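Below is how a single chain appears once it has passed through the pipeline. First comes the sequence as given, then the structure the pipeline wrote out for it. We keep one example in the README because the format questions we get most often are answered faster by looking than by reading.
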Amino acid sequence: MLTMYEHIPIRGITILLLTNNLFNIGLSQNLQTVNILFINDRTNEVAEETLNVALNYIRRNPRVGLMIDGLYSVKIGGDDASAILETLCANYNASIRNNKPPHLVIDTTINGVASEAVKSFTAALALPTVSASYGQNGDIRQWRNLDGEQQKYLIQISPPADLIPEIVRSIVVAQNITNAGIMFDDTFVMDHKYKSLLQNIPTRHIIAAIDDTTSIKLHLTRFRDVDIVNFFVLGKLSIIKSVLDHANSNKLFGRKYAWHVITQDKGSLKCGCSNATILFVKPEPDAGSREKLSNLRTTYGLTSTPELKAAFYFDFYYRSLLAIRSMMNSGEWPTNVTYTTCDEYNEESPLPRRNVDLRRYLKDIIESPSYAPFLIDTNGHSYEEFTMRLEKVTVLNSQSVSAENVGSWKASLNSPIVVKDAANMTHFSAVTVYRVVTVLQNPFMIQVDDEDGKGVKFKGYCIDLIEEIRKLIGFEYEIYIAPDNNFGNMDENGQWNGMVKELVEKRADIALGSLSVMAERENVVDFTVPYYDLVGITILMKKPQTPTSLFKFLTVLENDVWMCILGAYFFTSFLMWIFDRWSPYSYQNNRNKYKDDEEKREFNLKECLWFCMTSLTPQGGGEAPKNLSGRLVAATWWLFGFIIIASYTANLAAFLTVSRLDTPVESLDDLSKQYKIQYAPLNGSSAMTYFQRMADIETRFYEIWKDMSLNDSLSEVERAKLAVWDYPVSDKYTKMWQAMKEAKLPNTLEEAIERVQSSKSSSEGFAYLGDATDIRYQVMIDCHLQMVGDEFSRKPYAIAVQQGSPLKDQFNNAILLLLNKRKLEKLKETWWNLNPERIQCEKQDNQSDGISIHNIGGVFIVIFVGIGLACFTLAFEYWWYKYKKSSKVANTLNPKQMAMNRGGEFTYPVVPTLNATSGMRSRNIIQGFRRSVGQSSPKQK
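Resulting structure:
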């Protein structure tokens, strides 16, 4: 038979226990003898070492009133539950055979199969058990459905390493962290934390175990690839130093990153960091427990590390044994306890265990803790309430230059962080920096050179939009252009390109630009509420250029006609002059006949030219010739002029109007029905996808109709219903798609614009089909382009984020708020109506407008030329008059001068000879002239 000492693997404890028992028997009769079954995990060396300290403490302090008589220690491990149960049963059966059945089972297994096997063993045999296994409520499966009596003696108290990870949740909530990369070493167990740690918190996170140096590099690379910037490291100080050193070599420190290191160890933080600010979290014993902890360390050898863990196990053992002692002293412990061996156990007849309320006595223990007090509640909610100290550590050139106490955290499942200064935590936290992928497109996203010339920056509608959102949410961002500068389309293999690909592969957090909301895109990314109205596809064409001319009124008639009119004018004027000169009935040949008429007009050549010219005007030609032949010529000229003026007026109006009616294409249907203008969208654009899919749908409809029409299984009646002469399904888009492929789709917007601008005219060349915003902007900056037709296939613009990203809800709230404040309308006004690139184009003539100055301005030129010519003529007349007057004065001598000649003889001035027709008037003139010089007539002489 095995003795109880053969089952104690703790070196030296046998002699100590034997000596202790003999000594206590001699000194006191009040000692309570307790038997223990100690079950420990092979890897949990601190628990075994601390048990030795606890037993030594009890032995050396008789006042405790305990004597450990039977101690059976079992080390288990591995995943073989049958072997574990056999080991447990062998030790348990041995204790019964030795008449030393355990009053208490102390379980310090960690988790996994070994822990579950122990729980199954103790629950089946109804053994009072205190366990320090890891797990919250429901995590220990074998104790998940305990009844009321079982919960009284099957007790689990979570160890510190099971609570410390909960501080990650508290930090995330306090700092509103949206992403977290959590690494831990073997001093922590996180198997049951993967789902519960950040449950119901909108934080994208990854939890990864640190196995070796290689795993540290892999984890940091993985976090960086998915844009995680908040790091949490749980482990020993040596492991933490290794992680920080790797982070420093990868340049993962700065405003963009936040580092939180959490440990059970005591001591200072060390790392080879060049410049880092780190939140260092470490345990701190309660002020009232430090003296006892120091005494245990120096007197009883409680030197196991980490200190928090060793102190927990000490209090765990000590409080559990005191609870058994209290029950025995109060008579609550059953005296007739029956123990069933493993061989006698029958699963169908569970063992009853009543009135063993170990939990209540454990809760009522009043004993100063060695580190922190215990909270005893239900399983999963019982733990040690220790305190964690939060320090902001600044490291420069591998040296810690400061360690500022910023707050504390009381160990609990839902305990908040208590901070001394909220500003410290705010300044410490990583600035949230989102990666924004975009596509260059005016005026939404414009790339310009930085002021210092060393880089580039962005401006535009979308930049102003993200800035307004940033003010509401609070984040920073960095923008980069999509590698292929595409918005995102799916190929035949289901692969994406452009901005959508960057989101799908998690290289970007936000896709910002004039990105249309499409059904296939919504399958792989999330869209916010639209920030821009519905935008469709429309047509960009070259604006028709109406030819203008200041003397366009002269082009109404051909040059030959003008020459003929001019010839007729001179011929008629000359003919009228001849008729008036030779007709005996004209005024100049019958002056006496018409001497009493008020209108006396002599039609010399000058008057004839003037008459014919003024006859073509509304003013009229004035007095007509007196002779009948001259009047016939005038009447003929009037009829000719009336016809010419009427024809000219009618043709002038029509000529100025016809040029403005040339609009060959006004809609997509017009474009599809003509052949002179080529048209196409951008290659790979959403417009191309639209036309391609519409053509495919028409093809599929045709195949369906053809299959129905040629189906031999149809009856004659059904087939007759499908018999039509005309094709019932439109093939409009099929023909358009074929025309687009023949026209060759442009690859860039610049290429498309160039093809439109190089068109011969608006009725021959190239038309571009694209987003209305692109076309509207091009029309705004180029007066030679025009947008034709209404928009079709309209879709809204929205911001895209990764699928499942919490940014969707945040951006939705921000955009709706901006809509309510009318901020988005102001952005439209800024980047469209008030855009500095906007050009004020000349108003294009249309049917409702009047005749422009460009076509009728020559008339004003004629007026100014005529006025100028008249002014010149006036000056000439004035000069001629003065010149002639001075000549007459010089030639007119006084009488004395005229009476003397060179020889002294008197002479008469020379008088011009008058013709016979002058009559009395000529004689009167001569007589008057003679009287003026003081000379009598020859008759008087």
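The first helix runs from residue 13 to 27.

See the next section for the split statistics.
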